[in-house]
Amino acid sequence: MRQKRHEAGQIFVQTFLNIDKNSTSIKAPEEIVTGPDESAETTDTLKLCPHEEFLKLCKERAEEIYPIKEIKARTRLALIICNTEFDHLPLKNGAAHDIMVMKGLLEGLGYSVDVEEKLTARDMESVLCRFAACEEHKSSDSTFLVFMSHGILDGICGTMHSDENPDVLPYDTIFWIFNNRNCLSLKDKPKVIIVQACRGDNVAWRDITKGSLFITQLITCFQKYSWCCHLEEVFRKVQKAFEKPSVKAQMPTIERLSMTRYFYLFPGN
């Protein structure tokens, strides 16, 4: 049995998890952040950080923030895994829009994005292992992993999942693949994991064309605030978006943040 607390603590990771708001049967893992699922509008514009502000923050908070590699030399990679069609679970309508806007956001933040779809749990694990072994991570300063699928609180469902024959990628496996021992190229570098995975036996709130509220609000906050806010602050902005009484969805909660410094994305730098 893998030592979850030890392995997860070795990687600097922030994880968002979107689960069905009515699910109470299983306790959420301590690394997970839960979020809602409904439709909303985005700004469609990523605000860039002025170079002067970038230099100022890097100088003033040098001991507090993760270093950013030179834009011309770094090779940032991101991975999106999305399952929309399942053998035994409902179709995830609107997921195509979520993929498009998330890919656009990550590319705007300077990441080369690989998109993988229609994967079993074993396939997802294989894709993650290959991604973790990419040489480009050596000259990168961070990475993003985005999962969109059905899921349970312990993991993400593969395309063959059913109650009788589970097909689940455990969150522990993701943390194990990307810990400092197994992924040396990303050692001591921020790894951000975003999971949009509603329960398979409940159809989560989503718009067939605009996708999920969780993804859309997340993107909106990145577009508006990542130029001046570190990652944890951006996530708090996402939480604040759901304090409005008109938003009938579960408040996102940050259960654990294992980064030891502040992670600024400094878009445009």
Automatic annotation (TrEMBL):
One biological process term in Gene Ontology: regulation of inflammatory response
Record has Hydrolase as a keyword: yes
Residue ranges that the Swiss-Prot or TrEMBL entry lists as coiled coil: none
Signal peptide stretch: none
GO cellular component: AIM2 inflammasome complex; IPAF inflammasome complex; NLRP3 inflammasome complex
Gene3D superfamilies with a match to the protein in the record: 3.40.50.1460
Positions of the Caspase family p10 domain: 182-267
Family: Belongs to the peptidase C14A family.
Protein name: Caspase-13
Protein encoded by which gene: LOC101334434
